[in-house]
């Protein structure tokens, strides 16, 4: 089975009429297990609705750093969704795209809240680290989480190597076809820690000129295969095996393991 470990399926609602239905049909036809990260509470609630339409979509809850300032004073409102979600995401810090430095403390407060809950509830967590790789790593060292997925890492290689040494997993996307630095990063990631992502529909826009569709995963796999001198099938098999290993032994994911195993 193909694995899209980081997407935002609810945001197809913003693309246009028929975009969501088309994406779900493509996910079902291509058998792409898709982890749909949320941006905030309404995003997660919509993700839950969408998951009722397609059993290959797993909605997970987080508050994106771009939205942290809206939740920093109402963290208690997040407790129910955190308890419900099998995995936490997307959370993190963004000191690159977010230019308002006054929001950085709010980002850190919200992230630490999620890190503490992830540790308490023994849940996987997906992290956004853009421009704040060193700061995120320092927080992760403080909380000592058992399993971490770093989404679309594009930072310094020295920080990457420290994350690799700690056993983190990494989702890599379409930029692997466009950036020598990302290709270097993919080659640094041990094969057993590599996952694929699309960040659909908005994430790929700068590289493909429009909204991404689930079949974009083919291009991601092609880019990784070229960068690492593997075959397409080797990349697909490795990523599926890695994802299954990542969720092994976690009670939240037994249904997912069974689902993937049947396809």
- Give the SSE order as H and E letters: EHEHEHEHEHEHEHEHHHH
For the sheet with most strands, the description reads: 5 strands, parallel
- N/C terminus separation: 7 Å
Task: Give me the side-by-side strand order of the main sheet.
Answer: 4-5-6-7-8
Quickly count the helices.
Answer: 11
Overall average pLDDT: 95
Tell me the radius of gyration: 17 Å
Keywords:
3-stranded parallel sheet; 8 strands; 11 helices; alpha/beta; 263 residues; 5-stranded parallel sheet
Describe this structure in words.
The protein has 263 residues and is of the alpha/beta class. It has eleven helices and eight strands. A five-stranded parallel β-sheet has the order 4-5-6-7-8. Strands 1-2-3 form a three-stranded parallel β-sheet. α7 (180-188) crosses α9 (216-228) and α9 (216-228) crosses α10 (232-246). The termini are close together.
Short recap of the structure:
The chain is of the alpha/beta class. The chain contains eleven helices and eight strands.
Write the layout of secondary structure elements.
Elements: E1 2-7, H1 19-30, E2 32-36, H2 41-51, E3 57-59, H3 79-84, E4 87-92, H4 104-121, E5 124-128, H5 133-143, E6 148-151, H6 157-165, E7 169-172, H7 180-188, E8 194-196, H8 205-208, H9 216-228, H10 232-246, H11 254-262
Parallel strand pairs: 1-2, 2-3, 4-5, 5-6, 6-7, 7-8
Helix pairs in contact: 7-9, 9-10
